[in-house]
Every structure is written in C-alpha cells, then in structure tokens.
C-alpha cells in the first residue's frame, strides 16, 4: 500500500507537528532576568506624576468640527479605502478635531 500526500495534506501534517521543548521554554541566564526591565516601565517609575486638567471644548471649536465633518467627502479620497476614511472622520468628530492642540501630521 502506498500513501501519497498532496502539498495541502503535507502542510497540514507539518503544521500539527509538536514544537520541540527548547522552542517553547527558552532559558535565559539568571542575571539577565534579574536586570531586565522594560524601558517604558523604567521611564514610568522615574517620571514625575503629571496632573491633568480637563478643559472643556469651546462652542466655537465644536461648531467648527461639525462644519468640517459635514463638508468633508470620503468619496473624493483615493489614498485609503472609504471605510477607513469614514472611521477617521468619525474619530475626528468624536474627539472634537478642530479643538486639538497638536494637529501636526
């Protein structure tokens, strides 16, 4: 009896092969584990706490955002799919884009 595997079956058989122990349980030197710390965690520990203040949007910025959203047409955009354009416009509207303090790039 002869067993013939097509490429699809061979790929499936290969994908189901068990992963060797050394690939699932990496061994790091103990000194690495003791000294290792994520850079963002280090920054978070050292950074002074910043108090945030909520500044409500002005009526002018809310009105300007609504005007910009209503005047914008995702049908004219060719750089991104329409659904992505609409999502970006919704984000801009829901976060009062005209009132952003940093709107570069």
Describe this structure in words.
With 105 residues, this protein is mainly α. The protein has a domain of 27 residues. The protein is 50% helix and 0% strand. The protein is built from six helices and no strands. It is flat and about 60 Å long. About 10% of the residues have low confidence.
Layout of secondary structure:
Elements: H1 7-15, H2 21-24, H3 30-35, H4 39-46, H5 59-71, H6 82-94
Mean pLDDT: 75
- Gross geometry: flat
Largest sheet: none
Q: Beta fraction of the residues? A: under 5%
Spatial gap, N to C terminus? 66 Å
Radius of gyration in whole Å, from Cα? Answer: 27 Å
What structural class do helix, strand and pairing data support? Answer: mainly alpha
Order of helices and strands: HHHHHH
If helices are DSSP runs of H or I spanning 4 or more residues, what is the number of helices? 6
- Helix percent reads 40-55%
Low-confidence stretches: 5-14
What's the total number of strands?
0
Which characteristics define this entry?
mainly alpha, single chain
Short characterization:
By secondary structure, the protein is mainly alpha-helical. Helices cover 50% and strands 0% of the residues.
